[in-house]
């Protein structure tokens, strides 16, 4: 028994170190000289987190299943790595799309786990657990489709220009209200499994509707915001599973993603409210928007897809590469890629 | 249950503030790498997925859990890899402005 407790606290300690490493990773990412160290901290933290969790399985998993579980988990980790490596080796100009796509994967994971938790819990999920579970799944679901839309727009699979229609605000808002209404109903009556897929479906559609009114130039900020949503959904998962590491990492990502999108929209001279609400402000105040578009010179205007894309690339390269190289070879790569598109 | 919840909320609140404070003064140069690394950290959800698989409570949850592990792992690996490559680029192009030469451009 003491051994059992001892090893449980051991896992707690591993999680504690991993959390500290995640904080340090973000801290060190603040300045170029320490940024590499930041990645190392993040990687170590992630390895510790996964290792600790695997160890925990060995302690409390069902004995008859443990070998099978381990086997499948390692296979899954292998497949994930096989998918992840090509995703990490894309052209530098394709980084925005890749990040968005990667978000979709992360949020997909959260949504799947939430769904499984719901169907495992059945009719007797306590209200608090059910409400965070609904938060988790709604945030996760909208991040999945929102990220896919953002990736599609950046990759030019989808039209770059903002897609708006009359009554969009009202439509989006009412969708959100319906989703929350279903969530509240589910919290009160968990034994309504036919409503659960409806809620997830609405969250998925809401993600699409959230991103289509936003133009290509605002995409980096949107991706950062989706990052924040994904973080929050991971934190909600932490509440569902009562896992502090998930809560810490999720809250860190949630708040840092949010503040980063504010900072980025400032740096790129974009209006953050426009990014946050998309067409919400655009439809109602079209003349003012047009004025500001001329002033800041970066259009979300219609029928200039390629131009917007080039600016997006410029905005990204300004952040990532070209500042340091001073218009060196990488900047030219960007220009070439932008010109060719 | 009650105390665990409050503990969790405390942790959530503190971590949230740390996230704000840590990012506040980031150099604009590092916006994109930071976004990539937070993208990789997002996939911490893999922990939840592994726990789900390990509990092995039903076939459905097992399959969903395995899919979730795959998705999250690809996010982790891709996220860290691309951040690393981005920062490598910094390193090779850092001395360039002084020499005026392009140096060895990092392969992309």
Describe this structure in words.
Chain A is built from 14 helices and no strands. With 341 residues, chain A is an all-alpha fold. Chain A has two domains: 1-89; 97-303, no CATH class. In chain A, helix 1 (2-28) packs antiparallel against helix 2 (32-60). Chain A is globular and about 65 Å long. Residues 279-315 and 317-341 of chain A have low confidence and may be disordered. Chain B has a domain at 27-94. Chain B has five helices and no strands. In chain B, helix 2 packs antiparallel against helix 4. The relative contact order of chain B is 0.09. Mean pLDDT of chain B is 80; it is low at 96-108. At the A-B interface, helix 1, helix 2, helix 3, helix 4 and helix 8 of A face helix 1, helix 2, helix 3 and helix 4 of B.
Count of individual beta strands of chain A: 0
The dominant shape of chain A is globular
Got a strand count of chain B?
A: 0
Strand content of chain B: under 5%
- Rounded to the nearest angstrom, the radius of gyration of chain B is 20 Å
- Which protein chains make the most extensive interface, counting residues with beta carbons within 8 Å of the other chain's beta carbons? A-B, 116 and 91 residues
Provide the structure class of chain B: mainly alpha
Helix content of chain A: over 70%
Number of helices in the DSSP assignment of chain A: 14
């Amino acid at each position: 028994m003491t051994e059992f407790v001892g090893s449980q606290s051991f896992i707690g300690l591993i999680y504690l170190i991993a959390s500290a490493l995640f904080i340090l990773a973000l801290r060190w990412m603040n300045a170029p000289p320490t940024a590499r160290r930041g990645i190392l901290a993040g990687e170590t933290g992630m390895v510790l987190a996964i290792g600790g969790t695997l160890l925990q399985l060995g302690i409390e998993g069902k004995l008859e299943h443990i070998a099978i579980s381990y086997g499948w988990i390692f296979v899954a980790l292998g497949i994930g790595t096989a998918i992840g490596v090509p995703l990490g080796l894309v052209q530098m100009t394709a980084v925005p799309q890749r990040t968005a796509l990667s978000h979709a994967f992360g949020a997909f994971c959260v949504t799947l786990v939430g769904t499984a938790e719901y169907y495992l819990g059945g009719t007797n999920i306590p209200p608090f657990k059910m409400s965070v579970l609904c938060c988790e799944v709604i945030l996760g679901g909208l991040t999945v489709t929102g990220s896919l839309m953002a990736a599609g727009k950046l990759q030019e699979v989808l039209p770059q220009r903002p897609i708006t229609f009359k009554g969009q605000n009202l439509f989006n808002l009412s969708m959100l209200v319906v989703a929350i209404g279903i969530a509240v109903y589910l919290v009160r009556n968990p034994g309504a499994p036919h409503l659960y897929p409806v809620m997830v479906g609405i969250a998925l559609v809401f993600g699409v509707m959230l991103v289509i009114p936003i133009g290509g130039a605002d995409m980096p900020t949107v991706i950062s915001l989706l990052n924040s949503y994904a973080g929050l959904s991971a934190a909600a998962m932490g509440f569902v599973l009562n896992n502090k590491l998930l809560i810490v990492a999720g809250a860190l990502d949630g708040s840092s993603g949010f503040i980063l999108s504010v900072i980025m929209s400032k740096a790129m001279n974009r209006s953050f409210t426009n990014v946050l609400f998309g067409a919400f402000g655009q439809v109602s105040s079209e003349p003012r928007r047009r004025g500001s578009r001329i002033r800041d010179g970066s259009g979300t205007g219609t029928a200039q897809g390629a131009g917007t894309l080039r600016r997006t690339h410029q905005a990204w390269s300004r952040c990532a590469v070209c500042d340091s190289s001073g218009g060196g070879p990488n900047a030219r790569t960007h220009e070439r890629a932008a010109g060719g598109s | 249950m009650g105390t665990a919840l409050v503990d969790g909320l405390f942790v959530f609140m503190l971590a949230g503030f740390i996230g704000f404070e840590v990012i506040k003064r980031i150099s604009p140069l590092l916006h994109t790498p930071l976004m990539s690394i937070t993208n990789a950290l997002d996939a911490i959800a893999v922990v939840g997925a592994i726990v789900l698989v390990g509990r092995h409570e039903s076939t459905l949850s097992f399959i969903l859990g395995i899919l979730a592990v795959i998705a999250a792992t690809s996010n982790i690996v891709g996220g860290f890899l691309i951040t690393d490559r981005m920062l490598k680029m910094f390193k090779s192009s850092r001395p360039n402005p002084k020499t005026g030469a392009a140096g060895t451009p990092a392969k992309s």
